[in-house]
Amino acid sequence: MDTLQLKLFISVSQTLNFTRTATEFFMTQPTVSNYIKSLENSIGVRLLNRDSHSVSLTPEGQEFVGYASQLLMIQTEAENRLRNISEGRRGYIRIAMLSSAAELFSACLDEFSRAQPNVQVDVDIKEGTEMMRDISQCAYDIYFANRYMMPENDSIDYIVTGTHHLHLFVHRDIADSIDINDWSTLAGHKFVSVPETDFALSGQLKNICMSRGVVPDIINYYNRADTLFLAVNSNIGLTILPPGLTYFYNFPNVVSMPIGGDDAVINSVVAWHKSKTNPDAHKFLQLRALARVRQPS
Predict the structure, then answer these.
(1) What is the pLDDT of residue 141?
(2) How far apart are CA 122 and CA 164, in angstroms?
(3) Residue 69: strand, helix, or coil
(4) Which of 63, 115, 135, 216 has its CA 20 to 30 A from that of 30?
(5) Which residue from 293, 80, 127 is spatially nearest to 222, judged by alpha carbons?
(6) Considering the entire predicted model, what is its pTM?
(7) What's the CA gap between 253 and 275, in Å, rounded?
(8) Is the dihedral of CA 201, 206, 210, 216 positive or negative?
(9) First and final CA of the chain: distance in angstroms?
């Protein structure tokens, strides 16, 4: 099993057409077919059904697509890391970030890259449930997250970097009809929400509405912030989210309204595992950009 075999298999799994894949890779169709057959022989199962009219994935092929993608991703990450080491960038930090933290993270990355140009910083953007899972699995060096995501134990330390009020996001065509101080004006409007597996934020949406006399009619749950904004931008529904997301996402039809009250407060944090001793991560946590926004925890 080699890299080209995996790339060709992933391509065919998407195109379901050997000729199209051959064109993408500047090969002949028989060459692509031979590579796929060699891959199937090496792992001992048939990955594709093919006849003169169609191509489809076998059950084994459907299962293998995800593994093939992961293998290629790991190889790419390894090659990139080794290249950075050979070019003098021996330091390495892995950071997980909520998209609502993009503005602060951008300021931190700018300061850090100037001070530590030989440290490689990898960042992955996470949604709420992904972030909580990764924190529990000690998957990263640093997390730009929200305080409610912190586990109830002493394995994590963090600094509070902001206290914000959640915003109500609505389509501009209905914005004038909504009074944020009179929630009866929301009657009849549909809501979209983060998944219920993000217990705290989805629960906060419901509690905010119900404490103001509104039972939210949630018509759909989306597991990505950009999809929630797309739904609002398309006038599918309203939603309640952290205001920092507007730095990362800019949709022309979306209007935000700050929600007053202590029940609408959300705290952003930068967190790390006490057991991890990455010296470059420690340097990152000493940045002036973090010191300027640090609040009492």
Answers:
(1) 94
(2) 27
(3) helix
(4) 63
(5) 127
(6) 0.73
(7) 45
(8) positive
(9) 51
Strands (E), 35-175: 48-50, 55-57, 91-98, 119-126, 142-146, 156-165, 167-171
Kindly report, residue by residue over 120-138, the tens digit of the pLDDT: 899 999 988 899 999 999 9
Give the residue, 200 or 31, on which the prediction is more confident: 31
pLDDT range class, residue 77, cuts 50, 70, 90: confident
List the structure tokens of 125: 């953007």
Which tens digit of pLDDT belongs to each residue from 210-241? Answer: 999 999 999 999 888 889 999 999 999 999 99
Closest CA to 133 of 146, 156, 153, 151: 151
CA dihedral 285, 135, 109, 164 (to 10 degrees): -90
Consecutive H or E run containing 150: none
On average, the pLDDT of the chain sits at: 90
Residue 84 is predicted with a pLDDT of 65
Q: How far apart are the C-alpha atoms of 174 and 165, rounded to whole Å? A: 22
Give the count of beta carbons closer than 10 Å to the beta carbon of residue 174.
Answer: 14
Report all structural domains of the chain as residue ranges with CATH numbers, in order of start: 3-84 (1.10.10.10), 89-163+267-293 (3.40.190.10), 167-258 (3.40.190.10)
